[in-house]
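Entry 14. Structure prediction run on the chain below.
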Amino acid sequence: MISQWFNSTAPVTADGHRAWLARYLADPNDYTFVISTGEGEEAGMIALYNIDRARQTAEYGRLLIGESRHRGKKLALHASRLLLDIGRYLGMELIHLTVKSHNEAAIGLYERLGFGRDQDPATEPGNIRMVFRYDESTPSATFAC
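Output returned:
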C-alpha cells in the first residue's frame, strides 16, 4: 500500500483529497504535475513545492506512481529529471526532500539523480533529508532520459 510512505497515516477520503489538491493548486509556490505513461495514460504525480525564491530553494516530493503496472518503467526517474530542470529554470540553487529511512527504492532513485544525504538535526527520527545542489557543471536532465 502506497500510504506506508506518507507522513500521515489517516485514511484519505475523496473530499479530503480534492481539498488537499485545491490548496496546492492555489499556492503560487507549489507546482504539482501529473506523470503520464507517454501513451496519454495518467500514472502518478510529482511536485516541486515550498519554493523560496529569495533563498533559491524548493522541496521535491509527492512522487507517486499509483498502480503497480506503471512501476518499473522509469517513469519516476524521467519525471524527476524533468522536475529538476524546472527547478533550474526557476533559478533554484538547492532542492531538498525528506524520505523514510526504510524506503530503499526511493533513496536509490534520489541518489541516482544526484541527491546527497544531509545531516540536518531537525530531521525527524526514521527520516533522511537529502539535497540536490545545482552548479555550472550540473547537466540539464531533460535530454538525459
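The longest helix spans residues 75-89.
Filed with the rest of this week's runs.
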